[in-house]
Write a structure and sequence with these properties.
single chain; 279 residues; alpha/beta; TIM Barrel; 8-stranded parallel sheet; two-stranded antiparallel sheet; 13 helices; 16% strand
C-alpha cells in the first residue's frame, strides 16, 4: 500500500496541487440539506464536496476542530468522511489538520486517533515540544508529519519571528525539520501564503520538503507569488489549501456544482503558473 508521500507525488505528477479543506461547520451548511442528524448532514455535505472536487485536488484536509465542536456526532461525521475517501478515492491522501503536540505518551494517543480511528494519512503538528516528544508521529515512514513553521494568521510573527542566536525561530524550525527530523522522509512544513518573504526563506532552507500552504483566497495570499516561491526544483512540492472559497462557494442546493467550479478554476490557475519545463 502506498504511503502518504507516494500518494502525494502521484497526484503532483498528474498536475494537481490543491488541498480541499473540509472545514465543514454544520451552522454554515446549506439549509436545504439539513434534513437529518448532524452526523448525516455533515457527511452528506462532505460526500458531495468530495465527489465534486476529487479530480482537481492532491489532498483532502479536514480540520478536526469543525468536527470536535459538535461532539460525538461531529466526530462520527469525520470518521465517516475519511472512511468514504479511503474506500472511494484511495489515490487521494487525507491530512488531518489537528495541530497536535504533547509529551510522548500523550502523543501515542493522538497517533492512534489520527491514523487508526480517523484513518488519516498525515497530520499537522506543533514543533514546540521538540523532536523527542514527537517521535510517536515521526517514527512511522507511512505517515506524513506536517510541522507548523510560519503560519498564515496576522499574529504569526509574535513568536515565530523572534530571534534565537541571531536567527528567527521559524527558520530554525525549517532547518531542524529538514535536516534532523526528516530521517524517515516523512516530514513537511506548514507555511502561510500571506507571508511571501518567509515562504521564500523556508523553501531556501528546506529545498525538498513538501509545503502545506494555507492563506490563499479568503486570507488574501497571492497565488502566482505563492506558486513561484513554493515550488521545489522538480516543479512540485506545494499543497495549496483552499477551504471556504470551495466548500462554501454556494449556500444553496447547487453547492456541489459551485465547489467543482471553484476547484477547477483554482486547479487551472495554479497550473498556468507552473514553469513550462515541468508541465
Amino acid at each position: 500500500m502506498a504511503n502518504f508521500y507516494q500518494l502525494l507525488e502521484s497526484r503532483w505528477r498528474q498536475g494537481h496541487f490543491i488541498s480541499v479543506g473540509l472545514d465543514s461547520d454544520y451552522a454554515k451548511l446549506p439549509e436545504c440539506i439539513k434534513t437529518s442528524s448532524i452526523t448525516e448532514t455533515i457527511f452528506n455535505f462532505n460526500k458531495t464536496i468530495i465527489e465534486a472536487t476529487a479530480e482537481y485536488c492532491c489532498v483532502f484536509k479536514p480540520n478536526s476542530a469543525f468536527y470536535e465542536g459538535y461532539g460525538l456526532e461531529g466526530l462520527k461525521a469525520l470518521m465517516e468522511t475519511n472512511r468514504y475517501i479511503r474506500e472511494h478515492y484511495p489515490e487521494i491522501p487525507i491530512i488531518l489538520d489537528a495541530k497536535r503536540a504533547d509529551i510522548g505518551n500523550t502523543n501515542s494517543g493522538y497517533v492512534k486517533a489520527a491514523f487508526d480511528i480517523y484513518l488519516a494519512h498525515a497530520i499537522t503538528v506543533h514543533p514546540y515540544l521538540g523532536q523527542e516528544a514527537l517521535k510517536p508521529f515521526l517514527e512511522n515512514k507511512e505517515w506524513g508529519v506536517l510541522v507548523l513553521c510560519h503560519t498564515s494568521n496576522p499574529g504569526a510573527g509574535e513568536f515565530q519571528e523572534l530571534k534565537s542566536g541571531g536567527q528567527e525561530i521559524y527558520k530554525i524550525v525549517a532547518s531542524q525539520v529538514s535536516q534532523v527530523w526528516n530521517e524517515n522522509q516523512n516530514c513537511g512544513l506548514v507555511v502561510g501564503a500571506t507571508y511571501p518573504a518567509q515562504l521564500a526563506e523556508v523553501r531556501r532552507i528546506a529545498p525538498d520538503l513538501p509545503l502545506l500552504i494555507p492563506g490563499i483566497g479568503a486570507q488574501g495570499g497571492d497565488l502566482a507569488q505563492t506558486v513561484n516561491l513554493g515550488l521545489n526544483s522538480r516543479g512540485n512540492g506545494i499543497i495549496i489549501n483552499s477551504s471556504r472559497n470551495i466548500i462554501y462557494a454556494s449556500g444553496d442546493s447547487d453547492f456541489g456544482e459551485a465547489a467543482k467550479k471553484e476547484a477547477s478554476k483554482l486547479d487551472q490557475a495554479i497550473f498556468q503558473f507552473i514553469p513550462e519545463q515541468f508541465k
